[in-house]
Amino acid sequence: MSQTVTPDSDPVQENDDVMVEIRDLKTYYQGTGLFDRNPVKAVDGVSFDIHRGETLGLVGESGCGKTTLGRTLLQLETATAGEIRFNGTDVTTLSGDDLYEWRRNAQMVFQDPDSSLNDRMTIGEIIREPLDVHEWKTPRERKQHVRELLDAVGLQREHYFRYPHQFSGGQRQRIGIARTLALEPEFIVLDEPVSALDVSVQAEIINLLEDLQEEFDLTYLFIAHDLSVVRHICDRVAVMYLGHIMEIGPTEELFTDPANPYTHALLSAIPEPNPTSDKERIVLHGTPPNPRYPPSGCPFSTRCPARIRPDGFETLDDEIWTGIRILRELLRERRRAERSIRERIRGRLGYETRFGNMDETYQELFGELDVPAEVEDILQSVIEHASRHDEQCAIDELNDAFGSVCDGFVDSVEDETHKPELYTVSESGRKSYCHRHDETYREPDTVFEDRSNS
Ligand code: SF4
Asked: Which superfamily does CATH assign the domain made up of 3-268 to?
């Protein structure tokens, strides 16, 4: 049985060799709209550790919050809440000289090296700039340090007097890495450091990063969407979705035996080198929700193939269950869009609106399915409410009948704060954020595959 880690306890294991401790970290961007002041919840309460000397991969779809998380760790974005303890000091409380000094310890390599390379400066000046700013030792020692850094990243000392445009993409990334290393940081956030490079050059830069880690005792947070690169370079991996860490643990274990439904889906999308392989790809419906309007309950609930069904509907046909999930999302979208006065007027005047016809929607979702009478009655009532543009009533009725613990429903009562907990799912301490690890809801592993194409 999996060990439960309750929200009140420390959700990450004690480890003496921890360099960065992140606790319930949130980064929200406040809305500025006249009618809509909901914040964008880019990072929404994450807790994990980064161990000294390791490479922790951070993966997830575009927009899941991984770059914001990396930037928040370096205080390039302001945390809304939570703690980031770097060697025991909460850096979210630093300011002025203390923050300036701390920044020497933690640096970032960007996806696009050109963003940190000024075309009017020589390579020597670019790498030396942070040393000049921090008045590091003497000017003579700075120059010598830059030459050593050029050696370390595989460039020539005579490159000191050349300009960025004289170098290839891979060489420019080497220059960016040398500049990052100038102040001798302990911790580096690598934000998609090879994704803009040719495949052959990617391998060279990855090898260089591994060599530098060993030489300078570096700790990396490696942000990437290329899972094969992550599998190659990372000791552990954290999987992120809609501002949450869904699973975190040792790389090989997570890749060969994923515990979280989202990790299953993400890994199933990796292209299979063997064309005769019978590995099935898990198709996720729709796109990730808008982080300004995250779903109640589990962040993955609007797309999860393993979403838990309420009592009485455990054996409901998969396609009907999927249709109900899509209908719920559609109603949520309509409810938000209802604020448009123009659309209301068009509807009242009998013109077509972008909301479409609800009867057609019903036909599209359920028309060809054998819907049980009891379910059909509920759905017809929901459609009637929606046709009258009473989306809230339609959603309430749908939730009363089909609300799941994954949507934040407990005994048919909605509790938006009811989220999954982090469960320890292996002896290595791997964690997964999903109700499915609770004994009450546990199903055989096949649940993910069986429902993947529903
Ligand atoms: S809590 Fe529910 S919706 Fe979230 S990942 Fe687990 S099964 Fe899927």
From this structure: P-loop containing nucleotide triphosphate hydrolases (3.40.50.300)
